[in-house]
Amino acid sequence: MSEREAITGETAILSMSDDTIHSDLHERVRNEVPSHLDVTDVQYEGPDLVIYTETPREFARDDDILGTLAHALRKRVTIRPVPGTQSSPAKAKEVIHDVVPENANIQNLEFQSSTGEVFINAEKPGLVIGQRGSTVREITKEVGWNPEVVRTPPMESSTVNNVRNYLTQERAERRDFLANVGEKIHGSPDKDVDWVRVTTLGCCREVGRASFVLHTPNTKILIDCGDKPGAEGEVPYLHVPEAMPLTELDAVVLTHAHLDHSALLPLLFKYGYDGPIYTTEPTRDLMGLLQLDYLDVASKEGRTPPYASEQVRQAIKHTIPVDYGAVTDIAPDIKLTMHNAGHILGSATAHFHVGNGFHNIVFSGDVHYEPTRLFNGAINDFPRAETMFMESTYGRRNDFQADTDESEARVREIIRETYDQNGIVVIPAFAVGRSQELMLVLEEAMREDEIPTMPIYLDGMIREATAIHTAYPEYLRDGLRQRILHEDENPFMADQFQQVDGGQPMREEIAGDEPSIILSTSGMVTGGPIMSWLELLGPESNNTLLFVGYQADGTLGRRIKSGRTEVTLEGRANHLTLHCRIESVSGFSGHADRNGLEQYVKEMNPQPETILCVHGDDQATDQLSSALYQKHNIRTHQPKNLETFRFP
Amino acid sequence: MSEREAITGETAILSMSDDTIHSDLHERVRNEVPSHLDVTDVQYEGPDLVIYTETPREFARDDDILGTLAHALRKRVTIRPVPGTQSSPAKAKEVIHDVVPENANIQNLEFQSSTGEVFINAEKPGLVIGQRGSTVREITKEVGWNPEVVRTPPMESSTVNNVRNYLTQERAERRDFLANVGEKIHGSPDKDVDWVRVTTLGCCREVGRASFVLHTPNTKILIDCGDKPGAEGEVPYLHVPEAMPLTELDAVVLTHAHLDHSALLPLLFKYGYDGPIYTTEPTRDLMGLLQLDYLDVASKEGRTPPYASEQVRQAIKHTIPVDYGAVTDIAPDIKLTMHNAGHILGSATAHFHVGNGFHNIVFSGDVHYEPTRLFNGAINDFPRAETMFMESTYGRRNDFQADTDESEARVREIIRETYDQNGIVVIPAFAVGRSQELMLVLEEAMREDEIPTMPIYLDGMIREATAIHTAYPEYLRDGLRQRILHEDENPFMADQFQQVDGGQPMREEIAGDEPSIILSTSGMVTGGPIMSWLELLGPESNNTLLFVGYQADGTLGRRIKSGRTEVTLEGRANHLTLHCRIESVSGFSGHADRNGLEQYVKEMNPQPETILCVHGDDQATDQLSSALYQKHNIRTHQPKNLETFRFP
């Protein structure tokens, strides 16, 4: 998936043993490397093994050496030149511009002499990499520098820029951190793995505060650490002994960036955790965006945030990105593989291979099984997956969502009707996921004249989140990826999309203006600019409030959707009566519906032995677990928070 | 049950709130006590509240004062005289001998001036106490000393003597310990009790290493801590975070003394635990006996015992005895009540009342539901018991034991047949429980001439264990208690019982002698003198090896019972072929059979909502939990070790 993969010689290491290579590491590497190649030093860098050499050019000449080494050493291997063995940056720059096709559009080069890496920022990174990595290898052969290829996002994203700049700035400290993590990962497990356990710290018989501890005799891993929308006091049970002390966690795995999975991750660093977070690269960036917003919303609402922005930076600094499908050692007895979950950008299903073939546990995270406009459908194809923790948001007997085509038609109809009444359609939406889906629907509808072309205002972090999507097109659905990479076809850059960047005066102006469409956060009407829109547009009967996403228990969104028209907005004195039209269209969820959840399980091969239904309310988890048991004869559980299950 | 109860004014406090009385304790006591009575000091002593007074005689005059205080303060209350307010020991001795009827047979008096207590050792303690405590109150009124009445056992028991002497010697340290424990128990709970959890550390889908952690937001309690017969390496999972650090456990509760429940309790003290063990008085003594023997056997077999005898003493010193039926605060949010379990001497079912009416959890411990010759049947009458952890030793579909009358007849028949062949019957038996049951059967059979009178040799700790039984007749079945208290009817003191106290030479002599019956430990043929008996008697076809108790998986007893006649005795060079007759008679188990387990549940009122079947092998727990679910519509689980269940 990632550009890096092509040059690190990754190979399938799922079924290999955890034979320690630590004590005699240098010697073992030396033995595997042909004698004409120099091995000056060998170091761990997180899950990877880095070989420093005075002969980087000769390494690059051997097409197979990385694959051979990875297989022999049972690690992912990266080659780095010993400082001083490379051409000068000036000379190297010349060669790189020579070797790389011009239409790759190299934006800038950054030479890191401490690691021997050259960061090549380009609009078309694929052209820098070349067929199976041939161009980057050519560069190394010529100049001795190790190219790290980075995509210049087509839409500028301050989040992406900030994260990249911050990581560059923290590079030295991060190298120490990665070396430390590497030492731990590649040590021998102390004890035989004769059990693996999962403790539920949240999101059982509820939607929100996802958090689990996965525990073997050697290792303790936290999976997700979210908040609960509409119930700020209900945080994951981190203080129980299964999780404490947090400093003894070996790793954290984050399935995706939504706050009900990520909001409280920075808290771990406040309490002394300093280990890695494994997640995808886009999730790292989105999580930073959403966590900072979480702090912002909390302080605006007069709550004391549980941590500060410094801890968000800590979380980012401690993130080790993993690509979909890449098997990664994260502990001496655990290999992690993340797979596309189809839910939001970078969202993943986390597959844990525990022990040397002892057991496999999958955490579905939030999944969408069918492909959507944005993403390919969730992967449910695991070589082995005896146990699965499965989301059940729409697990109720009748939780069937409308067909997407019908849903889109209904949205267009509502927009046309509101337009005809000279009204404005306001859509509460998660900044991440549903907003981009709707943007694609609306852009297409206007392009094809199915609705009148009118301004589509993006309020809150929607534009920024969209820019992050364009920075990681590899994570988008196949066709969409191509369109984004051609600037004039990038649907997110259509003219009608306008950022609400003028605060309340701009909102008032928009509210008094011609018909338009507004996408605004938060998606469950629990805070953020949607509150202003409610105040401005709610009292007028020609406007429409349109729900397209899941509204959790206890949120204002749920109350309004259920028919409540008298609302009091927190932090605002005025009581408000909604006279606007209130509509709800299903079919845009980032979650599989009941049918999708059943299909997901049904089409697994082999089927899991045990499924634990979580991330759904009492009825949803109960009804889904009963159905899976009855229809598929799989042992199912409906866990409570604070329980521990042992496998196998 | 106990003599002490009569003078501590205990009352039912099950449903009362945990209102703290700590900060203003002295004042509150002062307010409740009539003004003519002095309150010099108020102290906690474990679960009890002790009032020190200069007017002990006046307190004793008021029949109701203790009950009134206990009710008002919601604590068990004891009154102690301030030193110096009592008559001299000489004068007091005179008065006591005056007041107590002569046939109480006072053996000796011991004055403890530090506590104002006088220990009255008597053969008939009931006569010292008098009707509803009238005689002891009379003593206090006259002399100001507080009588503590102790039974002189009819059979001398070195265990009972040693424990009592040791506790007397450690009295000062114990008082500090009890004061500490009291402070903790009677503090306010820090957090609301909105959950209670149980983690299984052993004895799930297996028989052995019983151990559970009961956990609330404020409190962590360990229940039992046993070994696993036939699998010495398999100890409870004490190292998991739910139990660690052991120093943070608030209390330990022991259901009964058998090693599969008690063997590893002393280990806790090795790892720094210094809190209380709650159990019955006879369990305390039996546990000491069995643990010391456990150390002895381990070192004889060349294993390194996991702890030393010093830790056994620690365990005894930290034991706070509780009587059957007495509701006892053991933490700010937990009340414990132990009930007769009918299994062995002092065996208990532990009922935990959690929070202020929040939830009730019962650990059955090992139960025998029907009365036996030795014990009344297990109590299953709880005001509330929403959740029950239930033993399932004989939980299999066909685990029905023979009728007791038939079993006894069969034993007599086997004995007669062996006698007629001039052979010896050797019966492997637990020192505690089955041995005494058999002694009663054999004594009666000889007395009634149903079998020839012949020597019955007791090898191992059987005699000592029997003596402990006679020290606690209140814990025996009603009729038996009376017989033990009349020396000439005490069945355990019949002439034919002879201790094997001459070691191997005596065994060889017995083996070469006339027909006899031998009861010898260990009950599952895993070590101890039974190994010598196998060697001496097993090769001869006129002898009989008779199994009457449960033989766990992995034990030599199980293998022989299943038909194996070629055995190798550990630590002995010789291979052995058994030619003796091998018989097995069920119906003497200390465990309820499948029918008894079902009846136990069926007759509960109200029925528990959830039953977790433990302490049985895979099949037994599976089949019992299925049956209870299907027949009684109770939610059942078949836990694994290392799982955590949350209630309600």
Say how many strands of chain A there are.
Answer: 28
What is the rounded distance between the termini of chain A? 32 Å
Numbering strands along the chain, what is their spatial order in the largest sheet of chain A? 12-11-10-9-8-7-28
What would you call the quaternary organization? homodimer
CATH-derived topology of the largest domain in chain A = Metallo-beta-lactamase, Chain A
Q: What's the architecture of the largest domain in chain A in CATH terms? A: 4-Layer Sandwich
CATH superfamily of the largest domain in chain A: Ribonuclease Z/Hydroxyacylglutathione hydrolase-like
User: How much of the polypeptide of chain A forms β-strand, as a percent range?
Assistant: 15-25%
Which stretches of chain A are poorly predicted, pLDDT < 50 over at least 5 residues? 1-22
Shape of chain A: globular
The total of helices of chain A stands at 22
What's the structural domain tally of chain A? 4
Helix fraction of chain A by DSSP (H/I, runs of at least 4): 25-40%
Biggest sheet of chain A, open or closed, and with what strands and sense?
Answer: 7 strands, mixed
State Rg of chain A.
25 Å
Biggest interface: chains and residue counts? A-B, 13 and 13 residues
- Structural class of chain A comes to alpha/beta
In the CATH scheme, the class of the largest domain in chain A would be Alpha Beta
